[in-house]
Amino acid sequence: MKKIKNKSSLNKKINLEKKHKKSLEKIAKNPASIGITGMFSLSEIEVPIFNSYEKVGEIDIFVFDCTNGINYYIEYKCNDSKSMRKKTKKQILLAKEFADEKYKGNPQRLLYVSGEFNTKELIGEKWVDFSETPYK
Q: What is d(CA 13, CA 61) in angstroms, rounded to the nearest whole number?
């Protein structure tokens, strides 16, 4: 009986990973799905973040060329929770720190997308509903 439970849990994890990847591809192809005006000219999915010598994290979507002139760092989670937002905040700030060294100049937006593309932006220390923020 335990084997079935493990198999079921493995299938659930595989399905969640597929949903995650499919959602990332949808966001990258259609930024309007999360409220962004403009198209992504150059974006990468699941980008590793390094400090000087080692991998310290990963960001789901890193957009460093959008037709609206803004760089986006987007982290997607299938399910929203307080702990997910806390974890996402750490990941997104690592991505910003990494990108600050390489891609200066353009304005930057730090986004957290959950579930059915509910989008929040990190402004200061607080997550704000993206629909309420200007300059998308």
A: 21
Taken in order 133, 23, 60, 105, the sign of the CA dihedral is: negative
DSSP for 12-37, written as a single string = HHHHHHHHHHHHHHHHHH-GGGGT--
What CATH number has the domain spanning 2-132? Answer: 3.90.1570
**Percent of the residues in the chain that have a pLDDT greater than 90, as a whole number:** 30
Q: How many of the other CB atoms lie within 10 Å of CB of 125?
A: 6
- DSSP result, 64-120: EEETTS-EEEEEEESS--HHHHHHHHHHHHHHHHHHHHHS-SS-EEEEEEETTTEEE
- Structure confidence by residue, pLDDT tens digits, 6-42: 777 888 888 888 999 999 999 999 999 999 988 898 8
Please report which helix (H) or strand (E) contains residue 5, including its range.
helix 2-29
pTM above threshold 0.70: yes
3-state SS class at 10 = helix
C-alpha to C-alpha distances, 133 to 14, 74, 78, nearest whole angstrom: 35, 16, 23
The residues spanned by each domain of the chain are 2-132
